[in-house]
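User: Can you model how guanosine-5'-diphosphate sits in this protein?
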Amino acid sequence: MPKHVPNKNKNFQKKQGKKTKKEMPKVITYRNGMTVADFADQVKQPVSDVIKKLMFLKVMASKNQALDRENSELLAMEYDLEFKDEVVTDVTRFEEIKEEDNPEDLVSRPAVVTIMGHVDHGKTTLLDTIRHSRVVSTEAGGITQHIGAYQVERNGKKITFIDTPGHAAFTEMRARGAKITDIVVLVVAADDGVMPQTREAIDHAKASECDIIVAVNKMDVPGANPDRVKQQLGDLGLLPEEWGGEIPYVEISALKNEGIDGLLETIQVVAEMQELKANPNREASGTVIEARLDKGRGPVATILVNNGTLRVQDYFAVGSTYGKVRAMSNDLGEQIKESKPGQAVEIIGLNDVPQAGDPFKVFDDEKTVRDIADERTDRVFDKQHAPKEAMSLEDFFNQASDETKKLALIIKADVQGSIEAFKGSINKITVEGSDIEIIGSGVGGVTDGDILLAEASNAIIIGFGVGVSGSVRALAKEKGVEIRTYRVIYEALDDIEAAMKGLLDPVFEEQVIGEAEVRETYSVSKVGTIAGCMVTSGVIKRNSLVKIVRNGKIVYEGKLGSLKRFKEDAKEVRQGFECGITIENYNDIKQGDMIEVSTMKEVE
Ligand code: GDP
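Assistant: Here's the modeled complex, given as C-alpha cells:
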C-alpha cells in the first residue's frame, strides 16, 4: 500500500491553472491539411482541449488528423477567433494552393458519390446494379474494369461513383486532408433499420460537409418497414423531406433493380443544387483513389481529376513521387487521351506507388515535378523520424526534465463510486517532483475517443472492472497509448506511486513458445501419466507454464513437471522431435490433447 500523505496538492492545482492559460492569438490562419495538433499550436491551447471542443461539435479526431475548413471555422468560433485562409505560394505544397479560375472558364462537372451504410445492407449490390444498368449500352464488350471509381450517365449527365463502399477508406482519405466526395448515399436496409455502422456513417458524412441522400434498400423483402427507418434516422437528425426535413429518401431494391433511376435522379437534383463547377482549361489537379504495383506495368494509380484536363504526356507530382502520364484508361478499360474534371482514370508512368488520398497536380516539366517530389520526400522522412510522444507508466519516471514531471490519467470504471474513490486517494499521493492530473473520467468501457484523448495529452488510461475491446486495444497499440486495467483501486495506486518514484516493477506477459501434440500416454506408478508427444511448433522448455487444450478448450493450466528425450532429462525439445512430458499435479492427459507451453517475458 502507498503511504497516504495529507493532500498538499492544492498549490499545484493553482499553478496548473496558470500554466495552461497562455496568451491566445486573435486570428487563426487555416491551411489545407492542417492537423488538430497544428491548430492547437497556433491557438496556443492544449491539444486535448481542442479535441474536447471537437467532440462537443460531434467530430472525433486524433491529434494528427487533418481538420477540414468548416470544422476549423467552427473551432475558431468556439475560441472566438477571426478566421482566415492562408495564401500559399510554395509549389511544393501544391495541394494547398487555391486555384483561381475565371468564372467564364467554369463548366459544371459530375458529382462524386460515395456509398456508405451498415454491413450487409446492400452497398456492394447497389454499386453493382448501378454499374450494370449502363454497361449494356456500351460497346466495350460489357465488361467494366475495377479502377476504384466508375461513371454512369443519366439524361446526358454524368455521375461518378467511388467504387469502395464503406466509410473506412472515406475517413482514411479525409484524415489525410483529401475531400473528394460531394454526396453520400446512406444505404439502410428496410428490414433491419439503423445499425451501429449506420450511425458511424452519418457521423463521417456530416463531418465531411457532404450532402446525404438516404437509400432505403431491400424494399422487396416482406418485412420491409421504410417508415421505421425514417423515424430512426429522423431521431438522428436526418429528417426526411416529406416530413418537413431536408434529407431526400429514396426507396429501392438494389437486388431487384427497382427504384434505381429514382435514386440517380435524386443524386442529380442534389448535385444541381451544389452547382459543382470546374475549369477544364487548365492543367489537371486531383486525388489518388487507388494505387498498386502491377507486375507488368509498374506503379498504377487511379486519379480522380478534380479540376483541369489531364492528358497523356503530362508531367505530374503526386504525393511524394512524380511521373509522366504514359497511358491512361477509363473504367471501361478503354485507352483515352484526356480526362475531364469529375472523371476517374487509371494512369501509368509513375516512379513509385502513391497512397490513396495523395494529392496530384500537373506541372510544366520534369525538373519541377522531380524537385517537388524530392522536397516532399524529405518532409515525410522528417515527420516519420520525429520522436514519438506516446507515454507509458514506465516512461514516466524517465522523462528527461528538471521541471516537475506530470502524469496525465484518464479513468474509466464500471461504477461512478470507483472513480470517486480513486480520485480521492490519488490526491493523497505526493511524491516530490511529480504531479498527477486526471484529464478525463467516465463510467463504461474504454472507447476510441479515450484513446484519441490519451494520445493527444500523453495520458495513460486506467480502467477498473471495465473491458477493452480488441479494436480499441489495436487502436491503442497503433497510437502508442498505454491502457492498464485493475480489479482493485489500491493496486493501481501502488503502481502509480511506484512509477512516480521510478520503482515500477517490470510488467510480465505470458508468451507462448511452443506446442506439442499428445500421441500416446503411459501410466507409471509413482510418476503418474507420461505423455508421449511430438513438438509441432516452437520449442518446449523445462520449468515452463502449460495449458492443456482438448477440442479447442483449455482443460487444465499449470506447470510442466518433467521433460524427457529418450528417457534422459532434457532442457528443451524443438519442433519436429518427440519427447515425454509430465504435468505437475495432473494425470488426466489424453491422446490428441495439445500442450501449449509458455514463459513469462518482460514487456518492453
Ligand atoms: P454490403 O455489405 O452493404 O456491401 O451488402 P451486400 O451488397 O453484400 O448485400 C448483402 C446481402 O443483402 C446480399 O446477400 C445481397 O444479395 C442482399 N441484398 C442486397 N440488396 C438487396 C435487396 O434490395 N433486396 C434483397 N432481398 N436483398 C438484397
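A couple of observations from the model: The chain has five domains: 18-85, 105-278, 285-384, 393-506, 510-602. The domain at 510-602 is CATH 2.40.30.10 (Elongation Factor Tu (Ef-tu); domain 3).
User: Helpful, thanks.
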